[in-house]
Write a sequence for this structure.
């Protein structure tokens, strides 16, 4: 019979033997904002803590194992698995989830992003401003006319083309989507 060396037996003052099991590792010990800042690029329905993904990925896989997330949502599992040295694959039918997971599927150099943002800024500045007549009145309450024009530009130029964007443009769309809290995809 094998003896688990992690179990501690000790005598209390009345000579009763007490079994003390080792403290279990848990994902709950981390704060809500634990982990890489990319986990928090935006909120998402039914999202879970990066520490939960971290716990299970560490518990049930090792370096270079494949981690598949069939309901990737905002890409929490995908990003955490990448950070832990696993090969990752993510699937989701929601276009917004696709954009978020795709943005977390690789890393970028800041200069790549800034160059591309500058490109989009110039394109926006040279674009014809569409009328806001067809915009719902509720949106006009929350956004200035300038912001609504910017959001419409992003939706027309990036959001409607989400499935064919370059990796850098997809990353920019994900960041803009998270910061604007407005549906600009499809």
């Amino acid at each position: 019979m094998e003896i688990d060396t992690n179990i501690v037996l000790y005598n209390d003052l009345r000579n009763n033997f007490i079994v003390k099991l080792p403290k279990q590792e848990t994902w709950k010990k981390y704060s809500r904002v634990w982990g890489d800042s990319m986990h928090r690029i935006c909120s998402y329905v039914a999202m879970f803590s990066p520490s939960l993904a971290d716990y299970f990925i560490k518990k049930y896989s090792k370096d270079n194992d494949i981690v598949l997330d069939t309901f990737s949502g905002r890409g929490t599992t995908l990003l955490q698995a990448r950070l832990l040295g696993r090969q990752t694959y993510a699937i989701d039918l929601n276009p917004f989830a696709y954009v978020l997971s795709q943005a977390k599927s690789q890393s970028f150099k800041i200069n790549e992003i800034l160059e591309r943002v500058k490109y989009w800024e110039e394109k926006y500045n040279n674009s014809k401003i569409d009328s806001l007549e067809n915009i719902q009145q509720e949106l006009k309450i929350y956004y200035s006319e300038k912001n609504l024009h910017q959001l419409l530009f992003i939706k027309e130029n990036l959001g409607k083309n989400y499935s064919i964007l370059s990796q850098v443009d997809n990353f920019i769309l994900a960041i803009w989507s998270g910061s604007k809290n407005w549906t600009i995809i499809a």
Strands lie at 8-11, 17-20, 66-69, 87-90. The two ends are 62 Å apart (CA to CA). The first strand starts at residue 8 and ends at 11.
